[in-house]
Design goal:
heterodimer, A: 220 residues, alpha/beta, Glutaconate Coenzyme A-transferase, nine-stranded mixed sheet, three-stranded antiparallel sheet, 6 helices, B: Glutaconate Coenzyme A-transferase
């Protein structure tokens, strides 16, 4: 019997190693996997490269990990929200590196990472500081820069419902980066509100097919 | 006649007149979000929001707020009937694949070629891009809403950007508190002027030489 359901967040994150690359779903607090991030905080892994649209807010989400110097590098589109003071402070102190990425490029690099596309050309960022050091070519007269895929050793994601096969549906704009991160994580851990019987999710409505998910854990 | 700079609301109201029923629209923060207050209530418009909402409605009342349904500023919003959700890569495929009709964005500077700077102020280490670069290059039309001059009275419409670039050759039309200016291959065309201002005054507040539209008129602010 296929069963990807873990009994606790602690078990689900037990083997995360120091120096791993982790993709964190969420747009601000929407679709943010709070509980597995919290479990990782207790688990202790450090030297993490984090891929996340935002750097956490107040001391919530990955800001909790950043505050404890557990993240050494952040790939992110918007690190300057008013409430992301934890990141700003650590960045100023030189304790965390930043790779700033336009949000659409970030999403597409992750999607590519999950889809076996190692790199692609896009017009976004041409003529900006994002283009520095990147190959530039024109296609049909449109100048483009080369962007490389992003893959994760782990992906921490949040969904609304799962079954034991790892099929997922999401809640509203809580979907955001979660489905593409599920694709690009070698070990994708989904935190969900509800676990239902196999066959209960409408196959036409499943957003992330279980093949992209390795572990499921229910939010407490 | 008195000359008064347009208010933020008046700029938004002027831009709203450009929108056509059925347009798929992305609104930036600042003056742009005000535009939706001035569109015709009898027409249907589709608002796209970068985190994966197509058909975004108004801000949510406290009793209907869902922390998983937010706008790009992370405020709780509603979804209109016919609205849909998508993941971030599909949401930006709508943007990058030229499926958004109009993006209305704030601006720090616009060049005479239609280059836009709006994501980071000068000489500051850290900035946030979010969806700005994708939206500026991806939307079919880009309208910039901003004040005509900066806090020191200097022009924000310049020959060449000296602020960090968001995207090159992307702006279609600039709507300011003083004028409506279209970006064309030949240069910047002055199309409308705020009541009470002269062509010379607008030119003085603008670095590149303006081309006068044969139909140059006053901005209707009523």
């Amino acid at each position: 019997m296929i069963n990807k359901v873990f009994n606790s967040t602690e078990e689900a994150v037990a083997d995360v190693w120091d120096g791993s690359t982790i993709l964190f779903g969420g747009f601000g607090g929407a679709g943010l996997p709070y509980e597995i991030i919290y479990a990782l905080y207790h688990q202790g892994a450090k030297g993490i490269t984090a891929v996340s649209n935002n750097p956490g807010y107040h001391e919530e989400g990955i800001a909790k990990l950043i505050a404890n110097d557990r993240i050494s590098k952040l790939l992110c589109s918007f690190p300057v929200q008013k409430d992301s003071y934890v990141f700003r402070e650590k960045f100023k102190q030189g304790k965390i590196d930043l790779e700033l990425i336009p949000q659409g490029t970030l999403a597409e690099r992750i999607r590519a990472g999950g889809a076996g596309i190692e790199a692609f050309y896009t017009p976004t960022g041409v003529g900006t500081e994002i283009a520095e050091g990147k190959d530039e070519q024109e296609f049909d007269g449109i100048p483009c820069i080369l962007e490389k895929a992003i893959k994760g050793d782990f992906a921490f994601i949040k969904a609304k419902k799962a079954d034991r096969w790892g099929n997922l549906v999401y809640n509203k704009s809580g979907r955001n980066f979660n489905p593409v991160m599920a694709m690009a994580g070698k070990i994708t851990i989904a935190e969900v509100d509800e676990i239902v019987e196999v066959g209960e999710l409408d196959p036409e409505s499943i957003v992330t097919p279980g093949v992209f998910v390795q572990r499921v854990v229910k939010r407490s | 006649m008195d000359k008064t700079l347009l208010t933020r609301e008046q700029i938004a109201k002027r831009i709203a007149k450009e929108l056509r029923e059925g347009d798929v629209i992305n609104l930036g923060i600042g003056i742009p979000v005000l535009v939706s207050n001035f569109v015709s209530p009898d027409s249907e418009y589709v608002y796209h929001s970068e985190q994966g909402v197509l058909g975004m409605g108004s801000l949510a009342e406290p009793h209907e707020a869902d922390p998983d349904l937010v706008n790009a500023s992370k405020e709780p919003v509603t979804l209109v009937p016919g609205g849909s959700f998508s993941h971030s890569a599909d949401s930006f495929a709508m943007v990058r694949g030229k499926h958004i009709d109009v993006a209305i964005l704030g601006g720090m500077q616009v060049s005479e070629k239609g280059d836009l700077a709006n994501w980071k102020v000068k000489d500051v280490g850290l900035g946030g891009i979010g969806g700005a670069m994708d939206i500026a290059i991806g939307a079919k039309s880009v309208y910039v809403a901003m004040t005509h001059t900066n806090k020191d009275g200097g022009p924000k419409i310049v020959k060449k950007l000296d602020y960090p670039v968001t995207a090159l050759n992307c702006v279609s039309t600039i709507f300011t508190d003083m004028a409506v200016i279209e970006v064309t291959r030949d240069g910047l065309v002055l199309k409308e002027i705020a009541p009470g201002f002269t062509i010379e005054e607008v030119q003085q507040a603008t670095e590149p030489k303006l081309i006068l539209s044969p139909n140059l008129k006053e901005i209707a602010i009523s």
